[in-house]
Design a protein that fits this description.
Largest sheet: 9 strands, mixed
Distance between the termini: 57 Å
Structural class: alpha/beta
Helix content: 40-55%
Strand order of the largest sheet: 1-2-6-5-4-3-7-8-9
Radius of gyration: 30 Å
Length: 384
Amino acid sequence: MPAGVAETDPERLARIALTRVFGPEHQRVAVEVGRRGAARVWAELRAAHPGVDPLRDLDAASRVGARLLCPQDSEWPIELDALDRLRDEGDGSAVGAPLCLWVRGPGDLREIASRAVAVVGCRAATSYGLHLAGEIAFAMAEQGWAVVSGAAFGIDAAAHRGALAATGSTVAVLAGGVDVPYPAAHVELLAEIARTGAVVSEVPPGTPPFRRRFLTRNRLIAALCRGTVLVEAGLRSGALNTVAHARRLGRQVMAIPGPVTSATSVGCHRLLRDHREQTVLVTGAEDIAEEIAAMGRFAARPPTAVEPRDELSAMVRDLLDAMPSRAAVGVSVLARRTGLRPEEVLAMLGPLAVEGLVESVPDGYRLTPLGRAPSNARSRSRRG
């Protein structure tokens, strides 16, 4: 919406003011806004908050090149509306959709959210986790997916940098204002994200990132995306909170496995074990795309080597399996073991000898080294 309209629309100004006063944690205010409209709610509360000036927030946003988004705007990501439909489980998880958003950067949030994946994880990541996060984000960006994360140290930053390296779109959702770089060491990273993608927050400019806001902003990361990938996470990692939001929203949850001895992968492994019906083990971008892309998309699988037995019928493979691995065996014994008539066994042994899978010896027939090689079909059945 043009700035001139935004500055005179009472409903939009009221949303800014209510966000400044209450923040996203006060869900009762959002419920009242949904029932009666922001302008009426703010009109009743305005006298108690004389220092709140939404025009000042708009001016601060303008100075850093940020814009205001409200639910009626064409750029508003409709995926966020699902947050208002979550059932309150008494644990604070049902914080609904934001009253408004502040966006710094050229990325169109509605367009981005239609093809976005969240890549999250712990701050104290290992080189294994950092490498995978960057590699996954790079590959997903190359395939046209936007990568969403929280701009924190560790996995978040690696994911953003991976997408940027592929000249792809990436979105950083902050717990503070879009003009408050956090962590401060990522000021350049956030500036680069804002040049090509989007830096997003639901709190007004200048708002510091209070600790509780990291948990409430995690719901936005999950809601903006088709799925969330957990790369590395300790048992109490905040990234597990993002995954919990994704699970409640019915979005696809994916986890990267790590070494069983690594403390930074305990959260991933626990997720795969305790929520196995809702969590998919993935190892790369192809697996992830298979889970969140349109139906009918399947990850490429490496070709399986063809073994000598693979082209044989099941009956012939059963005959070979009935033969001892080293000793010779007679036709009558093979007939009993397979339930075939002796003439049927002989009819099959002749071609097998020509193929070099068996050989005739004085005591009967025995497998050659080539015939002892298992088939891929047999190997797969054993794994199953």
